[in-house]
Amino acid sequence: MVQSTVEHPADVVSRLRTTFRSGRTKPLSWRTEQLHGLRTMLTEHGQDLAAALLADLGKGEAEAFRTEIDFTVREIDHTLERLADWLRPEPVDVPERLGPDATAWTVQDPLGVVLVIAPWNYPAQLLLAPVVGALAAGNCVVAKPSELAPATSRVIADLLPRHVDSDALAVVEGAVPETTALLEQHFDHIFYTGNGTVGRIVMRAAAEHLTPVTLELGGKSPAFVDRDTDLATVAARLVSTKFLNAGQTCVAPDYVLTDPRTARELEGALEKAVQETFGSDPARTSAYGRIVNDRHFDRLTGLLGSGRVVVGGEHDRATRYLAPTVLADVAPDSPVMAEEIFGPILPIVEVEDLDEAIAFINERDKPLALYAFTQSAAVRDRLIAETSSGGVGIGLPVAHLTVSDLPFGGVGESGMGRYHGRYSLETFSHRKAVLDKPLG
Ligand code: NAD
Question: Which catalytic residues are annotated (predicted)?
Fold first, then answer.
């Protein structure tokens, strides 16, 4: 096994490029072999990964399997079942002026050597799910896990090259200096998940080599709650998705938008739902995670003053525990509304009606997701038509990203490009046009 961490990034890329040029990664059989290898790694070493996720994020085992390990296995299975089909050349109509014997079609070419840079919040899923697409498309891959989830980074760096072709895939661990050195290399695609500040650094570096990028970023995803909805169900679904991974989820509902009367009723429903989900002391349940580091812990506790605490607010810096917290009476210009929260704080912001909610959303950066709880098809359709976001979830936050046939990605400040299922293959391939006009 080649330990990629001791190699200079330029040598890693050159080694992988030699493999790519040999043509070895192109046949379907090589691609499916890699996906099976990755699958074996996840099924045989799921416990090792779960232990690492617990160490890095206090992530409970059930959540680790559901949102990271089994999630990636499902993505692999979805791809394995359909890959041959997806790779079939697609015929297109040819204009008559080119003659009746001319035919045209598209094929999907692998790009070459691609770079995948992952963040710390779902450190296994967000590294490995893009890798599934990159390998399925026949590329060589440099995978860069987040240094802020060091245990997961280590386990993946150890396991991955043992389960896939290690001359086609390398894991490069490290922080800013290592990533900066990687970004100086010439890649054929860069797939980055994380914050927009670094997204800009990635895009600038990519421009040097005319390398296309996918940027999976974040933002403040609103959840509109219509009047006259079943608030017990709304609250249960908001709580189970907002406080997943202690709120450190890119598609978590960031804040609630609702009218003043519904806001009052929702407060009680949310308090009850938090108790039902996590018990009277969430610190004691293994189903509830911890904040990744002191910097984020201090940032989050600094936001608690932005409104009246309905439930939660308790925190302990030594264990980086911050209780699932709901804030009411939150002003639109308060600190908690200034940036993506990325933690277990759910502010309720009041608007008079749907028009005001739509205006509120449209005045801000385009979010990664928009959620709505409503019984009305007209309200749903207006929200879909009159706002722009990476994706939309009606009645259930977060779950749209578990549908492999849906593209997952942002728009505007929440990112560019998309992946999952077939969209990952598209992202990591070049769709090449072919015209064939016979001679004679
Ligand atoms: P992070 O700090 O782990 O950074 C992400 C990656 O960027 C890491 O691999 C890190 O090494 C690298 N990096 C950091 N600074 C760098 C620099 N100066 N130069 C080059 N590389 C650098 O994670 P994060 O950015 O804190 O992640 C949280 C953000 O990511 C949130 O905004 C969240 O919404 C977003 N996010 C988006 C998605 C999505 O799928 N769209 C998923 C998860 C998180």
Answer: 216
pLDDT confidence tier of residue 1, bands split at 50, 70 and 90: very low
Strands 113-117 and 140-144: parallel
Ligand 1 pocket, residue 250 CB under 6 Å: yes
Q: How far apart are CA 78 and CA 74, in angstroms?
A: 6
Q: Whose CA is nearest to atom 30 of ligand 1?
A: 194
Rg (CA), the chain: 23
Which atom in ligand 1 lies closest to the alpha carbon of residue 122? 43
Active site residue 426: no
Q: What is the pLDDT of residues 363-378, one digit of tens each?
A: 999 999 999 999 999 9
Where in the chain is CATH 3.40.605.10? 9-217+415-436
Q: Quote the CA–CA distance of 116 and 242 in Å, as a whole number.
A: 27
Instruction: Judge whether residue 264 has pLDDT over 50.
Output: yes
Please state the CATH superfamily assignment of the domain spanning residues 222-402 in this structure: Aldehyde Dehydrogenase; Chain A, domain 2 (3.40.309.10)
* pLDDT tens by residue, 376-433: 999 999 999 999 999 999 999 999 999 999 999 999 999 999 999 999 999 999 999 9
- Find tokens 């449209």 and name the residue: 362
Domain span(s) for CATH 3.40.309.10 in the chain: 222-402
Q: Any idea which fold 9-217+415-436 has? A: Aldehyde Dehydrogenase; Chain A, domain 1 (3.40.605)
Query: What ipTM does the predicted assembly reach?
Result: 0.95
Give the Å distance between the CA of 177 and the centre of ligand 1: 15
Q: Which residues contact 398 (CB under 8 A, 6 or more apart)?
A: 241, 244, 249, 251, 252, 369
Annotated catalytic residue, options 63, 75, 216, 426: 216
Q: Is 179 in the pocket of ligand 1 (CB under 6 A)?
A: yes
Longest dimension (CA), the chain: 82
Check: CB of residue 254 under 8 Å from CB of residue 403. no
Does residue 125 register a pLDDT over 50? yes
Could you give the 3-state DSSP secondary structure of residue 14?
A: helix
